[in-house]
Amino acid sequence: MAGIKQIKSGIVSKNKIVSSNSTLPKLIEKTIVEPNRAPSQGVFYPSSLGSPCDRYLYLAYNGQLPPMDVNPKLQRVFDHGGTFEDRMERYLTKAEILVDREVVVKYADPPISGRLDFLIKDKDESTVVLELKTIKSSLFTNLFEPKPEHLVQVQLYLNTTEYSLGYIIYENKDTQDWKCFKIKQDEKMWQDLTERCHTIMSMTTAPEKCTGAWYCDCKKVSTQGVLI
């Protein structure tokens, strides 16, 4: 009886039944990515406020960032996160704790616009915020508290709505393991965030120095305000 190695060798090298092909993936990828628009001017987004870079935040608030460059692979990453939300909606519905999904959040001063993932019923029947994040294994293993940008995002929701408690569930992209963190409303953090927003709003020119990560989008704009 032929062994697995012999079978594999026969398929690939003799019969040519199996071969590498890039045509089909490229055909599919043409339909994956849609054109992106630059963020709206004059508003802060919870995802932006999680950045430590004031230069980035200034450019984002003033509509001076280019549209996000989304390639097919990055779009698949986003879509994978979307499947997590779809699955979670089924889980929450079955558990009979789902209140709402994709709830729009707006605040006037400072101007903030966002959309929280879920509202659910907590064990005491109170309504709380639930945010979902997917993360790769190498980061998941050493995750013992929410990532700072995600904590900021949830704090914005807790301080601009009537809800004072939230959860973040991280899902390991490779194993589907979960880690869950409970987050309470922090008024001091909210005060610091609003002060930062007002400082950015009062600036007449963008800070020259990037204080974010190596991939910070502010690096796409020169100090003269020209797209690089």
Q: What is the number of helices?
A: 8
CATH architecture: Alpha-Beta Complex
Number of domains: 1
Q: Specify the biggest β-sheet.
A: 5 strands, mixed
Low-confidence stretches: none
Radius of gyration: 22 Å
Beta percentage is 15-25%
Helical content stands at 25-40%
Q: What's the N-to-C terminus distance?
A: 62 Å
Fill in the CATH topology.
Lambda Exonuclease, Chain A
Indicate the CATH class: Alpha Beta
> What structural category do the secondary elements indicate?
alpha+beta
Run of helices and strands: HHHHHEEEHHEEH
Q: How would you write the strand order of the largest sheet?
A: 1-2-3-4-5
What's the total number of strands?
5
Mean pLDDT: 86
User: What is the approximate shape?
Assistant: globular
Describe the structure.
With 228 residues, this protein is α+β, with helices and mostly antiparallel strands. The chain has a single domain (46-201, 211-220), classed as Lambda Exonuclease, Chain A, CATH 3.90.320.10. The protein has eight helices and five strands, in the order H-H-H-H-H-E-E-E-H-H-E-E-H. The protein has helices at 4-15, 23-29, 46-49, 54-61, 72-94, 137-140, 148-160, 187-202, and strands spanning 98-107, 112-121, 127-135, 165-172, 178-184. The protein has a five-stranded mixed β-sheet, with helices on both faces. Helix 7 (148-160) crosses helix 8 (187-202). The protein is globular.
